[in-house]
Every structure is written in C-alpha cells, then in structure tokens.
C-alpha cells in the first residue's frame, strides 16, 4: 500500500499528475488544493496518498495534507460516495470549510461537487457530523494528563460524552471501558470511551 509519494513532477492535467520516484512514474488523481500547491514540471512534489484497490483497478489519490487525506477517507466511507466523488467534494472547498459546513448542516459546499445531489449531501452530513463532533470534543479537552485519583479525568470525559449527546448511562459505560489505573490523559480516555460506544 502506497501512503506517501515524494518525487519529480513529470506532467499534470486538470485532475491528475505523474510523479517519478525511483525510476517509476505514478499516476495520481489529486484535489484542486493539491494542484494549486504544485510547481512546474521538473520540480519536487510531495503527496499524501490513498491507495484504492478494486478487482480490476489500483488507483492512487493524492492530497496536500494529512488533514485532507483523513477527511477524504471519512467521505468515501459514506454510502454513495466513491473516491471520485470524494475527490470532487474536497476540490470544492478546504477541509476546514467542509468540516464547518458539515457541523452546521449546510449542504451548499458539498452540493457544488459534480455528481452530488441533495440526498448524497445529506448522507455526508448525517454520517460525518457525529465523527467530527467527537474529534472536536477530544481536541477541546485539556492536554495535560489528569490524575485518576482526583476524579478530574473521569469528570472531564463524562462531560465531553454528555456534550456529544450520550445519556448518563452511556457515558458511564464509556467511562467503565477506560483503565484509569494507567492514568490516561483526558484525550486518550475519551478516545477509548468513544471506541467502546461504537464511535
């Protein structure tokens, strides 16, 4: 599986590039954002890669940042969003703009992508909004590790879970999945609790 490419840009079209590395030229489909950051032919390029494998095809999709790559990988998990549609959505706006739109339930930036109708745009919001809210809750927690002994870590994690819409009982289930004896930080503990709750 190819996850990263660094090499010489041989040529480019509106939505693909050929990158030579180690004597091999790789054809990569890219977003508009990644294309804007490219120099002329012959310059060195770096791309974060998603390798898409099907029975009859192996395709590479390239991104300017890991944030863009991660959002693409979340998009293609949505029913009805394949790699080409996911690439199209990411070509319409930056990951930050798309995330804000999904959290605000605005379908406009998603609908601008070719081949995306209102139903698909709504599916993207329904599927990705809870995941993005969970990510935001993790980032909002203090970075300093909290001691399990003073109860502050569990309280922070419980508050974050309740803020994400979990019931008190579900929040307790998530807290019980965490091994507090290892003194995990709040972010780590919340990630473990969310996994236990199926997020």
The helix/strand order is EEEHEEHHHHHHHH
Helix content: 40-55%
**Total individual domains:** 3
**CATH top level class name of the largest domain:** Mainly Alpha
In percent, how much strand structure appears in the residues? 15-25%
Q: Separation of termini?
A: 26 Å
Shape assignment:
elongated
The CATH architecture designation of the largest domain is Orthogonal Bundle
What value does the Rg take, in angstroms? 20 Å
The poorly predicted ranges are 143-149
Overall structural class, as computed from helix and strand content, comes to alpha+beta
Oligomer: single chain
According to CATH, what is the topology of the largest domain?
DNA polymerase, domain 1
Q: How many helical stretches? A: 9
Sheet bearing the most strands, described? 5 strands, mixed, barrel
Spatial order of the strands in the main sheet? 1-2-3-5-4
- The overall strand count is 5
Please specify the SSE layout and strand pairing.
Blueprint: E1 4-12, E2 16-21, E3 24-30, H1 32-36, E4 44-54, E5 57-63, H2 66-75, H3 83-92, H4 95-103, H5 108-111, H6 118-140, H7 152-163, H8 168-176, H9 186-196
Parallel strand pairs: 3-5
Antiparallel strand pairs: 1-2, 1-4, 2-3, 4-5
């Amino acid at each position: 599986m190819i996850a990263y490419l660094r090499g010489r840009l041989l040529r480019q079209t509106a939505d693909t590039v050929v990158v030579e590395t180690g004597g091999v030229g790789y054809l990569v489909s890219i977003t508009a954002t990644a294309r804007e950051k490219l120099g002329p032919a012959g310059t060195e390029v770096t791309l974060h890669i998603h390798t898409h494998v099907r029975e009859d095809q192996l395709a590479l999709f390239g991104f300017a940042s890991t944030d863009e790559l991660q959002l693409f990988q979340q998009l293609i998990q949505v029913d009805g969003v394949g790699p080409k549609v996911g690439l199209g959505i990411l070509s319409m706006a930056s990951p930050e703009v798309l995330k804000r739109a999904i959290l605000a339930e605005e379908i406009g930036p998603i609908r601008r992508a070719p081949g995306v109708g209102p139903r698909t745009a709504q599916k993207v919001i329904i599927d990705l909004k809870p995941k993005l809210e969970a990510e935001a809750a993790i980032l909002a927690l203090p970075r300093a590790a909290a001691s399990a002994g003073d109860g502050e870590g569990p309280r922070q994690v419980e508050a974050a879970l309740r803020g994400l819409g979990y019931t008190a009982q579900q929040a307790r289930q998530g807290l019980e999945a965490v091994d507090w004896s290892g003194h995990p930080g709040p972010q780590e503990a919340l990630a473990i609790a969310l996994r236990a709750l199926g997020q």
